[in-house]
Amino acid sequence: MKIYTKLGDYGQSELLGGMRLHKDADRFRALGELDEVSAWLGMLKCKVSGDEKAFIEQIQKDLIVLMSHCAALGGKEMDKYPFPAGLELEIEKRIDAIAGSWSGETCFDLPGVNEVSACAHIARTVVRRAERALCTIGWEYPLSVDALAYINRLSDYLFVLSVREAGGEGK
Predict the structure, then answer these.
(1) How far apart are CA 129 and CA 58, in angstroms?
(2) How far apart are CA 158 and CA 20, in angstroms?
(3) What pTM value is reported for the model?
(4) What does the DSSP assignment read for 114-136?
(5) pLDDT exceeds cutoff 80 at 96
(6) What CA–CA distance (Å, rounded) separates 33 from 39?
(7) Three-state secondary structure call for residue 141
(8) DSSP state at residue 80
């Protein structure tokens, strides 16, 4: 099986439903940012243990759904790829489980205390960049509010995970 089609050799690529855009279009930029988020989450998943590993893997699966949603926006495929409502609630539960017992106000820890915390910080910053890219495409193609809530909550999760993994409590 050949994985190359040569259809992108002239600087364009195809979205779901057949719409072709230049590869530097905002839509592809957002999709690339989400892909990078998933890659960094893969690195983070290699470094965490226990049920955190499975939780991060579920997030990666959710990101695939989000990328499909973004790739179908405005096209005839849009209704086939909705972003499910309520997925951000699972992230909120995890955030509460991690930070619910913290006694003080949260503070920002410096990245680099250890590898796990540093990876969580990198993933968090890439999520924020992806969020900005999603907002940009949202001006032309309205995104699901659930998708925007999800990506916003994801950066919060990665923040509390980085603090916990650095040995902090958010003091």
Answers:
(1) 21
(2) 34
(3) 0.91
(4) SHHHHHHHHHHHHHHHHHHHHHH
(5) yes
(6) 10
(7) coil
(8) G
**Whole-number pLDDT of residue 108:** 67
78: its two tokens: 């849009």
Helix or strand (DSSP H, E) at 2: none
From first CA to last CA, the distance across the chain in angstroms is 54
Per the listing, tokens 């960049």 go with: 129
**Which structure tokens are listed for 54?**
């499975």
Q: CA-to-CA distance for 131 and 66, rounded, in angstroms?
A: 12
Helix, strand or coil for residue 20? Answer: strand
DSSP label at residue 12: E
Return the DSSP state at 149: H
DSSP 8-state class, residue 4: -
Q: State the pLDDT confidence band at 171, using cuts at 50, 70 and 90.
A: very low
